[in-house]
Amino acid sequence: MREDYYDLLKIAKDASDSEIKKAYRKLAKKYHPDKNPDDKQSETMFKKISEAYAVLSDSKKRAQYDRFGHDKFRQKFSYEDIFGGGAKDVFREFGFGDDVFSQIFRGGGGRVRFETSGMGAGGAGGAGGAGFGFNDIFGRSGSARGQDMSAAMTISFREAVDGAERNISIQTGAGAKTLTVKIPPGIQTGKKLRIKGAGAPGARGGPPGDVYIEIRVADDPVFKRDGADLLVEAPVRYSTLILGGSITVPTLDGERNLKIHKGADPGKKMRIKGAGAPKLRGHGKGDLYVMLKINVPSKITKNQKELASKLAEAGL
């Protein structure tokens, strides 16, 4: 996609003010960070369309944009110019708080004024301009958001399945910090949890960064996991496979009796629906698959040996 503001908002170059507003509202709902947490691509798009709207919704800025074209306009005018001059009220009508912009928009450029006769010290580039100026978006002049930080945490299988709270200590620019991490039920190895605002402090009044905790789930001696599904091995006697019967199998909620039909195939998985791990974010549970494993005794009695010989003679 081109960076042209009209193309970003998917509107014609002669679009009316109402068409510009309608187009931005639709795209802002799609890419808003609250609907796309930890999605850098959506965050970038939200920044781009907001920049486009800040320019095209202002008649003077739009005229400058149409005059210079996209590349020259962005070289000539800084973020301070683009988001200055009353844009705060414009964005607030969409219900976007100031914190959205302080979290998303980074850096900035030098002070460059718009070259229109009607934009003096109180305009977009003016130091004394009122409204949504550079400092509203980026914090104090020259401020910078603190760095995001990352850490790893190993949790037990049961903590991953049931959810838990764990403390972790990290080192930030302000020293050691102990954080409480809420682990949602159903989390898996490789997932990252974000603790907003717990990262390194910002510079010169800028907001702090975030902390990302990468989760590692320890292996369990009983259950193997495949997403929300679980696999467990259950010993079964050969006689039970032939004659049928029942066995006791472990589940997350305790032992359960499982019926074995006559002539059961030990290589086939038996499913217990809904007895698996919870799916992340509370969307039901997976299934438990039981793999029958023939229990062969390491030592057999004389009677057992004789019976085994008879079974062999009978073709079993």
The biggest beta sheet is recorded as: 4 strands, mixed
Unreliable residue runs: 106-141
CATH level-1 class of the largest domain: Mainly Alpha
Name the CATH homologous superfamily of the largest domain.
Answer: DnaJ domain
State the strand order across the main sheet: 6-7-11-10
Helix content: 25-40%
Q: What general outline do the C-alpha atoms trace?
A: elongated
Structural class by secondary-structure content: alpha+beta
**Rg result:** 32 Å
User: N-to-C SSE series?
Assistant: HHHHHHHHHEHEEEEEEHEEEEH
Mean pLDDT: 78
Count of individual domains: 3
Tally the beta strands.
11
Distance from N terminus to C terminus (CA atoms, Å) equals 69 Å
- CATH architecture annotation name of the largest domain: Orthogonal Bundle
Annotation keywords:
alpha+beta; HSP40/DNAj peptide-binding domain; elongated; 23% strand; Helix Hairpins; 11 strands; 316 residues
Structure, described:
The strands form four sheets. The protein has a four-stranded mixed β-sheet. Strands 1-5-4 form a three-stranded mixed β-sheet. The chain has a two-stranded antiparallel sheet with strand order 2-3. It has three domains: about 5-140, Helix Hairpins; about 150-215, Sandwich (HSP40/DNAj peptide-binding domain); about 230-315, Urease metallochaperone UreE, N-terminal domain (HSP40/DNAj peptide-binding domain). By secondary structure, it is α+β, with helices and mostly antiparallel strands. The protein is elongated and about 100 Å long. It has helices at about 5-10, 15-30, 40-55, 60-70, 70-75, 80, 85-90, 100-105, 135-140, 155-160, 240-245, 300-315, and strands at about 150-155, 165-170, 175-185, 190-195, 210-215, 225, 230-235, 245-250, 255-260, 270, 290-295. The protein is built from twelve helices and eleven strands. Helix 2 runs antiparallel to helix 3 (about 40-55) and helix 4 (about 60-70) packs across helix 5. It is about 30% helix and about 25% strand.
